[in-house]
Write a structure and sequence with these properties.
Elements (H helix, E strand, L loop, with lengths): L2 E6 L3 H11 L5 E7 L2 H11 L3 E4 L8 H11 L4 E6 L4 H10 L3 E4 L4 H12 L4 E2 L1 H17 L11 H11 L4 H8 L3 H15 L4 H10 L11
Parallel strand pairs: 1-2, 1-3, 3-4, 4-5, 5-6
Helix pairs in contact: 2-3, 3-4, 3-9, 7-9, 7-10, 8-9
């Protein structure tokens, strides 16, 4: 059986290299490529691939938002993240968005091939470094009995951002409070809107306040 694959990455040279690697395997056919999240969603709608190889950080619509949209619209299509990001927030955000696997771009050709095959079968796949991080975080969470979040689909950092959004802070102010870049905050807010199925920032604020976030004064923060 030949697996149809869509490649999503904003770097043409990386896509070309990945395409060349995948052509070495008879059971994989690259049917389309995309350089941002919105074109990825369109490519999946057109080609209905078995697997999408998805980068996370891209201009415009992020890979995270695209993953959530693809999984909502095409539940039979599997998403395998292939990225440089190995931080815990990125891993868990991808899983919550619906990704079936998470590899770093340092993975070898055989590793990518096996991962594509595995996620196509419905299995969860993690690169070795990512798997170790996931196990550590689950162990830490279990040991500390982490409190339940009103929005379990959000990462801890996204909850921090949502809390400040609910307080009425703009992206620049949130960036200063959390020591993040304004671009990172903008991406986080976009991901939050997708995960909460909120059409606007105001709608996200209303949901957050209904859940008890943003109730405290920002004075002294």
């Amino acid at each position: 059986m030949t697996l149809s694959v869509v490649l999503v990455d904003d770097h043409p040279m990386f896509r070309a290299g990945l395409r060349a690697v995948l052509r070495e395997f008879d059971d994989i056919a690259v049917v389309a490529e995309a350089d941002d999240g919105s074109s990825a969603v369109a490519a999946v709608a057109e080609h209905r691939p078995d697997v999408v190889l998805m980068d996370l950080r891209m201009p415009g619509v992020s890979g995270l938002a695209a993953t959530a949209q693809i999984r909502a619209d095409h539940p039979d299509t599997r998403v395998l993240v292939l990225t440089m990001d190995e931080d815990a927030d990125s891993v868990f955000a991808a899983l919550r968005a619906g990704a079936h696997g998470y590899l770093l771009k340092e993975a070898g050709a055989d590793d990518v091939h096996r991962a594509v095959q595995a996620v196509a079968r419905g299995e969860a796949v993690f690169g070795c470094h990512v798997a170790a991080r996931v196990l550590e975080l689950f162990a830490a969470s279990s040991a500390t009995g982490a409190a339940r979040s009103p929005f379990p689909q959000l990462t801890p950092r996204e909850l921090d951002v949502l809390e400040l959004v609910a307080h009425g802070l703009d992206n620049q102010s949130i960036a200063k409070r959390l020591v993040l870049s304004p671009k990172t905050v903008r991406n986080r807010v976009s991901d939050i809107l997708v995960k909460l199925h909120a059409g606007t920032r105001a709608e996200a604020v209303a949901l957050a306040r209904d859940a008890g976030l943003g109730g405290r004064s920002t004075a002294g923060w």
